[in-house]
Amino acid sequence: MNGDADSKLAGAAADGETSKPRQRFVLEETGFDEVPEKYRKYYRKWKGPSDDLGPNEVLCPVCKVVIRSTRELRPGDRVYCMACFTRFTVTRSELGALEATIEY
Amino acid sequence: MADFLSAYSIQYWLESCPQGYLEDTEYGHAPGETEPALLLDDPQLRQQSIRTTVQLVVGERCALAASSGLINAAPDEASKRYLATQTLDEARHVEIFTQRLYDLGVKKTELEDVLREHANPNLVKFAEVLLEKVDKKDFVAGVVGQNIVLEGMAFTVFEMLHAGVKGVNPKFAHTLSGTIADERRHVGFGENRIGSLIKEHPEKKPEIERMQRDMSYYMLATFADAFRRAPDAAERKRLAQDLGGRPEASWHGVDLATADPKDMEQALADTVLKEFKTRLGRIGIEYQSPVRP
């Protein structure tokens, strides 16, 4: 199973939001241990509504885990939550935040 | 087909669960961790902990019966294999919460009597509504009842309990955090499997909506009973201080150490029902409001 959010990213140029190169991020272990070891850095626990998500992070609406990428996420990107097996497309809310829309 | 499970395997479950967050644990907590002495010494507090834990055992026994019963009703091989791992998760939950009853001083020979004495009748009815669907091998209704309604409720109840005890009872908090991790897979299976299956069986919606309404009624009645018996805010704050923990325990904007039991019940019910509405709405089922008990 490949839960690496990066591998699920759609092309940056295709999202139409911006042509700027995506920011890169170095992911550190956060202690999340609910998926096999090699994928753990791609997830972290959500700290509740006051938790500020980075431009490389999106909240899984099914199991409330934060999914992280080494690259900035943009609308149209596809991500997968290994903690609950859910596939999403990244969208942008009216307030400008990144959200996940589930694909059944 | 359960495409979302195409890469799920027993190997994945092993690496995530027994070799992941459960590694080096003993009945779900670190070896050597014990219940706080005050909780064991104070008869009222001990009795209250036993009563709470009995509800967890009753709920998990229902989940064990449902997940194991659904294996043979599942229409595809991937769902059967997934449910086999969920069955083991639920059996573990029954075991760890039963062990907590023993740790609280319940004798093995008295276990069933203690469960009968303290099991909330509304929680028993909640379980009966679900198990009736499972007994009829109704996979769609069974998975909605088990993995969306029951697991959705458990997910929120465990998170609230965890927020309330993490500062004062690390042993129980660790036990709960492992079950919360398991629940993520369970709610994920429910939404993803039913999200696609309900499109194939739209005729099932009215029956499922009735089941959800009935289960929600009994769930709210269980919460009402539980919080009616809860110590008041001043008593809880004193107990938290006696236990040497920090009195603040915030959950969804409610300070569990100082809130009135009525406000805690309201916060829990509102959070669970909001989650139900959102989860059911995503899979195309209209949430039905139960009569407030």
Residue runs with pLDDT of under 50 for 5 or more positions of chain A: 1-15
Domain count of chain A:
1
Q: Which CATH first-tier class of chain B would you pick?
A: Mainly Alpha
Distance between the termini of chain A: 17 Å
Tell me what portion of residues of chain B adopts beta-strand conformation: under 5%
Shape of chain A: globular
User: SSE string of chain B, helix = H, strand = E?
Assistant: HHHHHHHHHHEEH
Characterise this structure:
With 104 residues, chain A is an all-beta fold. Chain A is built from no helices and six strands. Chain A has strands at 43-45, 57-59, 65-68, 78-81, 86-92, 98-103. In chain B, helix 3 packs parallel to helix 6 and helix 7 (139-165) runs antiparallel to helix 11 (261-282). Chain B has helices at 10-21, 37-41, 43-71, 77-103, 111-118, 121-135, 139-165, 170-200, 205-228, 233-242, 261-282, and strands at 250-251, 254-255. Chain B is globular. Chain B has eleven helices and two strands, in the order H-H-H-H-H-H-H-H-H-H-E-E-H. Chain A binds chain B through residues 1-2, 33-37, 48, 61-65, 81-87, 102, 104, and chain B through 4-5, 7-9, 12, 15-16, 20-21, 181, 183-185, 187-189, 191-192, 195-196, 199, 252, 278-279, 282-283.
